[in-house]
Amino acid sequence: MMLHRYPPHFETADQLIELQTRGLRWTVSHTWNNSPFYRKRFEETGITPDEVRTLDDLAKLPFTTADDLRAGYPFPLLSCDPADIVRIHSSSGTTGKRKILSYTQKDIDDWLSMFGRCYEMAGVTREDRVQICVGYGLWTAGAGFQLGCERIGALAIPTGPGNLEMQAAFLVDMKSTVLCCTASMGLLLAEEVHRRGLRDRIGLRKVILGAERTSDAMIEAIRANLGVEEVYDIPGLTELYGPGTGLTCRWNTGIHYWADYYILELLDPDTLQPVAPGEIGEMVFTTLRKEGAPLVRYRSRDLTRLVPGECPCGCILPRHDKILGRSDDVVIFRGVNIYPGQIDEILSAIPGLGSEYQVVLDRHDDGKDYMVVRVERAADGNGGESERICKAITSAIKHAMLVSCTPEVVPHGTLPRSERKTQRMFDKRKF
Predict the structure, then answer these.
(1) What is the pLDDT of residues 171-180, one digit of tens each?
(2) Whole-model pTM?
(3) Which CATH number fits domain 331-427: 3.40.109.10, 3.30.300.30, 3.40.50.620, 3.40.190.10?
(4) Dihedrals φ, ψ of 208, to 5°?
């Protein structure tokens, strides 16, 4: 994958190390000189900028957490003159004080360059018409997708989320060629297009999904109902910049992430030690250029794996797997850690299932924990397959996770959908 308009700022692994080292030293110096929060945190740790000389010194630095952002409300991590802040965004959290992030104009420009790289990697050009079905306002998604689209010169159609009737009409009338949305919104719209028989009247070529974990079954349902071949996954963390900090390529062997803008560590969430490539770890971010609210070893709580080796697309940017869940969302069931992403992978591999499911954990009067896995049949499935599907689910979960479950098969379209993020894990146990 050759990126011409928004290429990486390095050509070799050694150049990346040199670039990240310079960026790390700049970030530490910048925060030491301009952020009372970081200055105090570094002094408490006993570290000064002069002691950070190589990437190995990253481990000496203290972690930053979501609690630090809430405690610093309304301008946490601020590391520049307040007059230089041109915009704020907020995460979509629902508890406690909001996590507010500040952006300088340079931060915005860097973000849009990263987004331009995403669009270029997906093959989006100025000839495309991009229907943007994500939230606007304090959330980063709408602004990122739209301004990134305008940066590359494509036509932005800012429909926002919801209103399926309008979305379907715009797909037909505006001849949208690219759809940007959450996976849940993409599924809703794809099912609406199928219900209305519009597949042959729309001209979509690509779908870019973000903001939530996706399963192979969801992607396949979206692809089939919308008649598209190319579906991309875009990560997005408001604390980092927002969506646009990486993208899957056409080979779909992992998410290429923009290592020339930030350092990604994968750490064991309990020991906080690095995990080996291919092992699940928590994503920890350190920015290399961010002025307004830089991140120093920010614990995202998101879980993924580093993907070793070279991508068949030829792009030199490193890769991580899709988000498998959050370290604070992992549930322990009968002594086994269960990641929501594992359930996605298991169910997506079973023929005859739709994209939607629910996992319900409960504790009965006998004091034991029980798991119910409620799944939808595929849209073209029939009731006669229920017994086969139940046996397949029981066997697959037992084999992969070493626990037992009780499967329930329900008709297609029975389980709830959402235009934002669909909840699929329910823990009713009382501890």
Answers:
(1) 999 999 999 9
(2) 0.80
(3) 3.30.300.30
(4) -115, 115
